[in-house]
């Protein structure tokens, strides 16, 4: 459904918000097609009833939104609803600035949320702190047209097969067989999750603030070292190696033949490929010999911030109810590639006339990826100052890709600096019990 059509349909359900409506703000951090979809949902909600009005305010990025929300809360000028990204989960849980959504809305069937989305945002006792919203996971994208030109007729499913395909592509004259940006979320977090590897002790921090990083000792270290060697061989490219200077743009333009990227990138890729190439999307690749586990949920969820009156909270709850509707989740998936977050939506898609439409291509595969067998190390990441850790990881590993140090040294340095961040966080919240 086109965005304009969605708003028009919603307008038929009720009149525009009246002057008596309770006004609330919802801060989000997305741009591009995702922001367009968020604004459409806000307009549709406001058009569907007259009791509440939500003003959706873009902040430009997750990090900026996080910083502004902290400052606004201290100044007691904060929004009722805020979209917070995955890496800031623990910081927000311990901030005492939000009300667990499951406490505010006990009658919602929260168990309908897919396990992969729930685990990241729930307490150790299974209570959801936030309502999953723009949920993504890591998927494997291929330009089937370019692969077939190189004689590759089967989509690779393992890293071994990817490298074999990359060598064929290179031999056929392809300058960019596989592309990545080396981002922490993709090459460390999602890789570790689906291979059943811990990122830190204490089950990635879920069992205590005294966790320590182990990334320099798991199979993830070998994979990252492999990426360095494959890049030297011309099989793997980084964003800086591409003509576009942006790895997603390079894939979408046909410059690169394979990439691993968020399901949220599907809409842009499909639009770019339309009429030029055939796009395939599958679960992210495994190394042979490893059992597949669930990938982490990415993207963000919506929190209700404390310090607001009852009418504002009721407006927030109404908006959250609206976003949870199957038709709204289907719209968001079709418009962005983000995956549905409740189990009933897949059934609704399957029964719809557009069940096999490309616009729902990420729904089934994304949910399937997040619903693979889980372990205590694949629930998510519950580590303090994790946003800063991601920056450290990128800084050190980029030096390895540049040949300034080995990948092992990069990971040893990352572990040391990461543990220092964890000890600072532990001291900051000394005596606090993890939710």
UniProtKB/TrEMBL annotation:
It comes from Aliirhizobium smilacinae. Keywords: Periplasm, Signal, Transport. The keyword Transmembrane does not apply. Residues 1-21 form the signal peptide. This is sn-glycerol-3-phosphate-binding periplasmic protein UgpB. GO terms for cellular component: periplasmic space. The lineage of its organism: Bacteria, Pseudomonadati, Pseudomonadota, Alphaproteobacteria, Hyphomicrobiales. PROSITE patterns: PROKAR_LIPOPROTEIN. It comes from the Bacteria.
């Amino acid at each position: 459904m086109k965005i304009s059509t969605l708003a028009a349909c919603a307008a038929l359900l009720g009149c525009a918000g009246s002057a008596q409506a309770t006004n609330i703000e919802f801060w989000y951090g997305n741009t591009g097609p995702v922001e367009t979809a968020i604004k459409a949902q806000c307009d549709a909600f406001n058009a569907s009833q007259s009791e509440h009005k939500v003003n959706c305010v873009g902040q430009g990025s997750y990090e900026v939104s996080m910083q502004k929300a902290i400052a606004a809360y201290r100044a007691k000028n904060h929004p009722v609803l805020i979209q917070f990204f995955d890496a800031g989960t623990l910081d927000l849980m311990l901030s005492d600035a939000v009300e667990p959504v499951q406490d505010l809305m006990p009658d919602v069937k929260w168990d309908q949320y897919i396990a992969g989305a729930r685990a990241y945002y729930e307490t150790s006792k299974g209570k959801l702190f936030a309502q999953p919203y723009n949920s993504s996971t890591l998927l494997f994208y291929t330009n089937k047209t370019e692969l077939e030109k190189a004689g590759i007729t089967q989509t690779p499913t393992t890293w071994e097969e990817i490298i074999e395909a990359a060598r064929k592509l290179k031999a056929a004259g392809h300058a960019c067989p596989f592309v990545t940006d080396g981002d922490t979320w993709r090459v460390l977090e999602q890789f570790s999750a689906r291979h059943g590897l811990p990122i830190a002790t204490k089950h990635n921090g879920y069992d205590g603030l005294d966790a320590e990083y182990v990334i320099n000792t798991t199979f993830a270290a070998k994979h990252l070292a492999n990426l360095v060697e494959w890049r030297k061989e011309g099989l793997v490219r980084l964003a800086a190696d591409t003509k576009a200077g942006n790895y997603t743009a390079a894939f979408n333009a046909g410059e690169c033949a394979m990439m691993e990227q968020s399901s949220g990138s599907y809409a842009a890729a499909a639009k770019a490929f339309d009429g030029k190439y055939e796009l395939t999307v599958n679960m992210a690749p495994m190394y042979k010999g490893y059992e597949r586990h669930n990938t982490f949920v990415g993207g963000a969820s919506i929190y209700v911030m404390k310090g607001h009156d009852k009418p504002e909270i009721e407006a927030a709850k109404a908006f959250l109810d609206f976003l949870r509707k199957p038709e709204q989740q289907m719209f968001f998936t079709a418009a962005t590639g983000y995956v549905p977050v409740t189990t009933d939506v897949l059934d609704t898609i399957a029964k719809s006339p557009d069940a096999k439409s490309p616009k729902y291509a990420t729904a089934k595969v994304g949910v399937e990826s997040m619903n693979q067998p889980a372990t205590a190390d694949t629930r998510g990441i519950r580590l303090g100052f994790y946003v800063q850790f991601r920056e450290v990881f990128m800084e050190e590993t980029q030096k390895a890709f540049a040949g300034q140090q080995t990948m092992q040294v990069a990971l040893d340095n990352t572990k040391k600096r990461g543990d220092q961040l964890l000890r600072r966080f532990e001291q900051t919240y000394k005596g606090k019990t993890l939710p």
